[in-house]
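Posting this for the archive.
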Amino acid sequence: MRLDRALRDAEAGRTRTEADKLISAGRVAVNGTVVRKGDVKVDTDTDTVTLDGRAVTSRRFRYYMMNKPAGVLSATEDRSCETVLDLLPEPLRKLGLSPAGRLDKDAEGLLILTNDGDLIHNIITPKKHVEKRYYVRLRENWQPDYDDRFRAGVVIDDGYQCMPARFEGGENPKEGYVYVCEGKFHQVKRMLAAVGNEVLYLRRLQVGELTLDADLAPGEVRELEENEVLALSKKR
């Protein structure tokens, strides 16, 4: 890739102009030789790029966890409503991030944002069997047969038979947990409606092996650790 691109990929939000200024100032070297042109080609797997003597690691893909608040769309843009990307700090808005799947507008909880299309595909494709865990608060008490009905494949309002899922009742008879591997429109709410109940509150707690960070306030994001990305990327 171009040297200026490698510098931009190394730091979230760094612009091409900023990268070019660093290069023209003689602060960047490739394999120990100062380079002053941003269009020089480098191989980030074999070449050593340094900035002020420190090695630069180019990261093409970025991965973030957001604690999505209610009232915000899981979309990249919308003319009439605030989106999850609008909540990001300015430097992160330049990375081309997209939500890996969606949460209902009124739902809260774990949302993964990335520019890695393969990972998004891995998370949202039902055949990959990446399980998502949701906490639900219900209008009526949950019933003992919910789990059996979910495992058998609930038929929702449009006639679609959902993939086998799971329901785990909470200690409170109006609280529970739903586990699904697909993400049809309002699916968790429609599944509970199909068994005669109504979801009053919905919060996603987990995607695969990744659990929502309890320290994240609504609307906050943090970058995923390498082991967390690897856990999401596991082939199933």
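The mean pLDDT is 92. The longest helix spans residues 16-24.
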